[in-house]
Design brief:
This protein is α+β, with helices and mostly antiparallel strands. 32% of the residues lie in helices and 26% in strands. It has helices at residues 2-18, 39-47; strands spanning 26-33, 56-61, 71-77.
Length: 80
């Protein structure tokens, strides 16, 4: 789970960087997990991605995700 979580953030932060933004511009994060037992492992990686003040976050347990994934992360960022 740690590797998948880090890969999600690497991909998302790459998209932000292409738009001239970074992690400090993130205001909301949505995390979707197919197994809530993975929360602690995901959260450990998540916590290392941001500094205070942390963006708002929602973590949602879902029955399934596309492409047989067990994790999906969505960000909302704002320009200063």
């Amino acid at each position: 789970m740690e590797h998948r979580t880090q890969q999600c953030f690497d991909n998302l932060f790459g998209v932000l960087a292409a738009a001239g933004l970074g992690p400090d511009n993130v205001v909301k994060v949505s995390v979707f997990l197919t197994d809530m037992d993975d929360f602690a492992a995901m959260n450990e990686v998540y916590a290392a991605q941001f500094s205070e003040p942390f963006p708002a976050r929602t973590t949602i347990g879902v029955a399934s995700l596309p492409l047989v994934s067990n994790l999906e992360i969505e960000l909302i960022a704002q320009r200063p």
